[in-house]
Amino acid sequence: MKVKIAESWEKVLQKEFEKPYFKELTNFVKREYKENTCYPEGNKIFEAFNLCDFKQLKVVIIGQDPYHGPNQAHGLCFSVNEGISHPPSLINIFKEIESDVQIPYPKSGNLERWAKQGVLLLNATLTVKAHEAGSHQKKGWEQFTDAVIKTISENNENVVFLLWGGYAKKKSVLIDAKKHCILTSGHPSPLSANRGYWFGNKHFSEVNNYLKSNNLSEINW
Question: Which listed residue (65, 100, 146, 176) is catalytic?
């Protein structure tokens, strides 16, 4: 796995790529992709970074694992490829957007349009074995993505971090709340959303209000 990542990210993450754990992780991922079906495709592993320039970063959304079904994952958390039916969490995200900022429910579940506006759609684990959720956890990805979050916190200002669910909320310790905005809520999965922990969080309007107050352009959700 040669790390193909946008130049703006390569500069700030170079030291991380050189650490022993990352070399071990690289060997593990190469082996897994050679021996098994894994997602996303190898050239999409760092897609979240390649579509969202480090210097233009406005929002970070933290997911946990890539989707593990065929043709779903393409390197952006919660997002699916064109023409793929929307998973339950993504459906609930779109429903909240519809009620919060009155943007009609979209046909496409591909969130590249957000990434290109400065939204980093970051899974804590960037790869997964087909049909085996969590199969690439605790192999080094979490150490890498924690370092990414810290790097963003230290080097940027006025970034909005959206931490949905217990797993993502734990990442708040990596973020300087004096420099950035942290918004938390339940996870958009049906289990959490149907208990009242997701709908009505108004995170999408809150993001834009915060960006506007800091003279930054709003996200067209």
Answer: 65
CA distance 61 to 96: 15
The answer to whether residues 96 and 201 touch, using CB atoms and an 8 Å cutoff, is yes
Is 146 known to be catalytic? no
Q: pLDDT tens, 126-185?
A: 999 999 999 999 999 999 999 999 999 999 999 999 999 999 999 999 999 999 999 999
Q: What is the C-alpha to C-alpha distance for residues 169 and 165, in angstroms, rounded to an integer?
A: 6
Number of neighbouring beta carbons within 10 Å of residue 65: 22
Q: Which two tokens stand for residue 157?
A: 């200002």
- For residues 187 and 180, the answer to whether their CB atoms sit within 8 Å is no
Asked whether the whole model's pTM tops 0.90, one would answer: yes
- Label residue 2 by pLDDT band (50, 70, 90): low
The SS3 call for residue 104 is coil
